[in-house]
Amino acid sequence: MFKRFSLIAMAVVLMAALALAGCGQKEAQKTTEESDVIKIGVYEPMTGASAAGGQMTVEGIELANEMYPEVLGKKIQLVIVDNKTDKTEAANAVARLIEKDKVSVIIGSYGSSLSMSGGQVAKDAGVPVVGCSPTNPLVTLDNDYYFRVCFIDPFQGKVMAKYAYETLKAKTAAIIMDISNDYSVGLSNFFKKAFIEYTGDEKSIVAEMNYKTGDQDFTAQLTTIKELKPDVVFAPGNYGESALLIKQARELGIDSKFLGGDTWEAPEFIEIGGDAVEGVAFSTHYTEEAPVTEVSEEFLNAYKNKYGGKEANAFAALGFDAYLVARDAIERAGSADPKAIRDALSQTKDFKGATGIITLDENGDANKSAVIKKVEGGKFVFVSVVEPE
Amino acid sequence: MTFQLFLQHLVNGISLGSLYALIAIGYTMVYGILRLINFAHGDIIMLATYIVFFGILIFSLPWWLAFIISIILTTIIGVTVERAAYRPLRNAPRISILISAIGVSFLIENLSLVIFGGRAKSFYQPHIFTKIINFGGVSLMSLTFIIPVTAGILLYCLTYLVNHTKTGMAMRATARDFETARLMGIDINAIISLTFAIGSALAAVGGIMWGLRYPQIHPFIGIMPGLKCFIAAVVGGIGNIPGAMLGGFILGLGEIMLVALLPTLTGYRDAFAFILLIIILLVRPTGILGEKIAEKV
């Protein structure tokens, strides 16, 4: 009797799972039949270690799509694929968007590693990509088809080194980086270079420790750092791992100041880190406090209306801008042909976005100011704006 | 390296090792009786943390009540999994049950992803567990004491149950030979359900401790601890309860010392566990405390 019951229960659960999986597929099928739409693909981490960042970005993209749903008299259709914070999945996601969904242009991804593995596929297929927040220089280097609406890490690393040296008066620094994450490795190296330049002391970086995405125990690395008593610890990485890391540092009695990069701007960072992350500072792309263009105001109002109660964040703003830049390029190209859109994208100049004026340079990078924020009273608080040189 | 620094590393290693040990005991219990590697163990751990999370967030339960409810619900889930996915395959070849276990693991992970979402959530940490104690420059969280003590008490209770009670005798008989045990009048279904109940309760305790130590939870949180604690159980001698403890400590201390002494090899931290597994399988396949088992004919 019970055996039969359990079999039925299993069948019901399986069917529910299949039905849920089926929903997504049906939608995709419907779209291939329509030809009077222009498709923009989106590949972002909706699950895994960068889920919060990816989801915030997608919020911004969807908001922009609601406000500007048409181009060239056709409807723009978003095809969103989850890359699961996995390099292989990211490459597959881009291949799927190009081959199966036949998109004209792609937006994504949060995470430099994910963008790099997707970028190669897009380059080979000749479909342009507009990155929202991948900040590693290698993302667009040697890739004519990759563009981005954010600043890059040499600048971000320098901003934080300057903040550490000038504002915090730090003489020594330790670095803890996620070696499986191109963003973290790149940013750490640029910070190191700039910090040594500022202090004029080769030995001002007292330690460089490593970990890997997914690690949860950092006590061994931190114990080594504790002994060296650096003034600041630069620890860019995924918000989840970083929050755990800082928490464990405080438990071990490390009272150095912690600094990081734009990935820390996720509500989860504060939720997980709690009191331990009070006072940490990081660089990011955008702040509500200082809207830079009229589009910023428009974005802020629309965001508040749509996601009432939630604070607007840099990733939503960058997603919003990436969509607008892509749409603008389609308009100027006058067609949905990927090659024409690529050429139009490379000509993007003085485009007014929510995060500032976007001009793409010969590498396809935007030259923009950075914002420094810190955590105070369980909130992200604006500290200052740093202009590019 | 100063002595103080070494002590701190040692404490860190014991802290991580006792957590591994706690979870490894669950694996070993189920394997000892059923000869089944319950690959869903890690996912049961994950479910336990989510039950606490929702208990505190939605029903605003006090943390200790949330913990107790989590242990009870997790136990029910564990027994249900056994009924639904393993019992129908009792007489099938062992590989079928193994595949079924992997299937259950994927099912739980992906259902959780749909239900709970992919974004990480923070696990509630009552202050009593996170109080920091300082011993001449060596920092300890009170959890660092609580975990090994809990593991020790559970170890004692389990060894007592298995070696000195009638139920324990029935368990050992079931482990030796299903059919003969049944002929001797043992209700093997009840014994197996009980084993799964204990295994899942252990998973819940392990999950809660894991959440308290590393307060970030998401649907895939159970995979790595699950895998590593399985390795710990094998290293110690799978099926052997004190062995699981020992394996957990070896793994935890080994990982911390690898990072502490050879910082350039940090990236191979997870590889360390697998290399250890391979070495043990080559040198002593039954594990450090495992007995040599004659193949049943």
Automatic annotation (TrEMBL), chain A:
Q: Where is the Leucine-binding protein domain?
A: 38-378
Output the CDD domains linked to this UniProt entry: PBP1_ABC_LivK_ligand_binding-like
N-terminal signal peptide: 1-21
Which superkingdom is the protein from? Bacteria
One Pfam family from the record: Peripla_BP_6
Stated family: Belongs to the leucine-binding protein family.
What's the name of the protein?
Answer: Leucine-, isoleucine-, valine-, threonine-, and alanine-binding protein
Organism, as annotated: Koleobacter methoxysyntrophicus
UniProtKB/TrEMBL annotation, chain B:
Q: Which GO biological process annotations does it have?
A: D-alanine transmembrane transport; L-alanine transport; L-isoleucine import across plasma membrane
Reply yes or no: does the keyword Chloroplast apply.
no
Membrane topology of this protein: Multi-pass membrane protein
Localization, per the record, is:
Cell membrane
Q: Which PANTHER family match?
A: BRANCHED-CHAIN AMINO ACID TRANSPORT SYSTEM PERMEASE PROTEIN LIVH, HIGH-AFFINITY BRANCHED-CHAIN AMINO ACID TRANSPORT SYSTEM PERMEASE PROTEIN LIVH
- Please report the name of this protein according to its UniProt entry: High-affinity branched-chain amino acid transport system permease protein LivH
Q: Which domain of life does the UniProt lineage start with?
A: Bacteria
**Which key words are in the record?**
Amino-acid transport, Cell inner membrane, Cell membrane, Membrane, Transmembrane, Transmembrane helix, Transport
